[in-house]
Amino acid sequence: MKSEWERLIERFIREGILKSDKVIRAMRLVSRDKFLPENLRGYAAVDTPLRIG
User: Fold this and answer.
1) What is the tens place of the pLDDT at every residue in 6-49?
2) In this structure, are residues 12 and 18 in contact, taking their beta carbons and an 8 Å threshold?
3) d(CA 18, CA 47)
4) Are 15 and 23 in contact, with CB atoms under 8 Å apart?
5) How many Å apart are CA 15 and CA 30, to the nearest integer?
6) Does some domain include residue 9?
7) Which of 5, 11, 22, 26 is exposed most, by the fewest CB atoms within 10 A?
């Protein structure tokens, strides 16, 4: 079963948002939640801007 993060990456690839193999590889290695405050980590795989500051 694929994670929400992986499904989001695949959607971005299908839609032409992600094109660079290097960026795709980096996104697969490092999840967005690593850059979010603890209270927002549940939204890491949601395609929406998150207010972090």
Assistant:
1) 999 999 999 999 999 999 999 999 988 999 999 999 999 999 99
2) yes
3) 13
4) no
5) 21
6) yes
7) 22
Q: What is the reported pTM?
A: 0.83
Burial of residue 36, with CB atoms counted within 10 A of its CB: 0-12 exposed, 13-18 middle, 19 or more buried: middle
As a residue count, the chain comes to: 53
Residue type, 15: E
Give dist(CA 21, CA 38) in Å, integer. Answer: 29
Residue 53 has pLDDT above 90, yes or no: no
Q: Residue type at 28?
A: R
Place of tokens 């032409």: 16
Q: How many domains does the chain have?
A: 1
Within a domain: 47: no
